[in-house]
Amino acid sequence: MSLKISQAIDILKQDHLLVSSQVTDLDKSVTNISYNSREKQDNGIFFCKGNNFKAEYLQQAISQGAEIYVAEKEFDSDTDHIIVNDIQKALALLSAAYFGNPEKDLFIIAFTGTKGKTTTSYFIYDILKEVFPKKVALFSTIDRIVGPNPEDKFKSDLTTPESLELFRDMRRAVDNGMTHLVMEVSSQAYKKNRVYGLTFDIGGFLNITPDHIGANEHPTYEDYLFCKKQLLINSKINIINRDTNDFDTVYSAALETSSADNIYLFGRDQTKDNLDFLLTSKEATLKDSIFHVEALNDKAVSLNITGDYKLGLVGDFNEINGTAAILATGLLDIPTADIYDGLQGAHVPGRMEHITSKSHGIIFVDYAHNYASMKALLGFLHTEYPKSKLKVVVGSPGDKGISRRAGFSKVLTELADVAILTTDDPGFENPADICAEIYGKIDHSKVSTKIVLDRKEAIREMITSSQNGDIIVLAAKGNDAYQKTKGVDVPYPTDPVVAKTVLKDIEGE
Ligand SMILES: CC(=O)N[C@H]1[C@@H](OP(=O)(O)OP(=O)(O)OC[C@H]2O[C@@H](n3ccc(=O)[nH]c3=O)[C@H](O)[C@@H]2O)O[C@H](CO)[C@@H](O)[C@@H]1O[C@H](C)C(=O)N[C@@H](C)C(=O)N[C@H](CCC(=O)O)C(=O)O
Ligand SMILES: Nc1ncnc2c1ncn2[C@@H]1O[C@H](COP(=O)(O)OP(=O)(O)OP(=O)(O)O)[C@@H](O)[C@H]1O
Fold it and tell me: Which residues does the record give as ATP binding sites (predicted)?
């Protein structure tokens, strides 16, 4: 991979990002790109970016071989440099160019939403794999998959990677023969311009509820919504959940760059304007749900996806995610039978995973970790199984998402029968204080609550004290294999593994 300096300057000029440059050889090409001085920099271009950037990082990069730097201000007048007015945008455009614009060789389907991004992306990935084996890449919160072999799959650090890593991994995907990419786009990705310059083939909007508002994320809900809707402005075809909050704002965003013919609306309420697809729940068991998708007009009928579908994971919210996935893949002309099969077999790590016991009820492991998602989850279980006791093991993280604590108190009071509060990524806070905060706002006349700080013990206690007919929800941690504690990722066996170990101990094989 390489990038000629004159080409870099042209790209920046064209996008009105260039402020000035001091370059000794415009014909020179760099063969390394980095924003982290701890990496190797031989013949490289280095980006000075980030809230916590220090001038000494640039000196380290230069001493390690960086030939030129890009920054928003001059740090070192002796070294070649390009000054720009937006370092994040510059990083995105120049990363794309450095990696040979791999986005042009991929059909990219991207989804956003406060909840359901990961699930919907896995659904689409599992459907597409049926039709394009070994040709589908996935960039999700859980895994990034850039090729067909085991070494091409690795854990993600962010939901949407920084632009440099995004284009690097797209390049790897293309070089590995991938033709399609399914990815999650977080609001932060737009806030931080990680996806700047990208146009998605299909963009989907699932929902928005207040979340991710705080010092390091979005200052206000309006800012959160503004960032989220950018995905639709930057997509050729749009899929929108008609029942989302702020629908009018979201739909107007889609109309900024797409005609109504290229916007597909789905939802559960047939009386709403412009609905293209109606979703209706049909049957749900503890293991799967069957729902119906019906095209309501000629535009929708042309996708040929009307029919019943089955999902191997329950939750009416998952039917919404499933419908979004059906539309996205229907737009690719994929036979309905393949969509049906892919969806039926879809599995999303840590999302509504169910574990059956012989005599201690049914256990769900789910990543629900704020009021809205817990409300959707517990509300669904409560409606489907009104006679069962709902027993929840949950904790809330330290150092972030403070509002989730009051949200858990509220939703547990509204819907749970029994709750054990426990540890979940306490960071630099004391997990006992976090639990006490949740405990303090629970109405104890409605839900029997206790605190067991050791998460494994909390799960053990909940399972051993339950019986058939009970529904246990191990919430908020999903399939996470560590507890983030005082800056260290302390290994944790994962909730499903802990639950299965407890069952093995008390029920045998
Ligand atoms: C607030 C925020 O968005 N921060 C992100 C941002 O950090 P930053 O650019 O400000 O960089 P920084 O961490 O301050 O570090 C300064 C710079 O110095 C460099 N450095 C540092 C040390 C050194 O020795 N040498 C050196 O060169 C670093 O490489 C960096 O470029 O860019 C970094 C990548 O370059 C991200 O890791 C980081 O995400 C933080 C850690 C994060 O986790 N953000 C969350 C809020 C997030 O983005 N979440 C969304 C999902 C939310 C949702 O579900 O909707 C996501 O997409 O994951
Ligand atoms: N469409 C939806 N509406 C409401 N809640 C949902 C929806 N889909 C999933 N959930 C709930 O949210 C949890 C997280 O789902 P998922 O990981 O798919 O969302 P996400 O958007 O990727 O979340 P995050 O941004 O927190 O990583 C699930 O475990 C489930 O409890």
Answer: 113-119
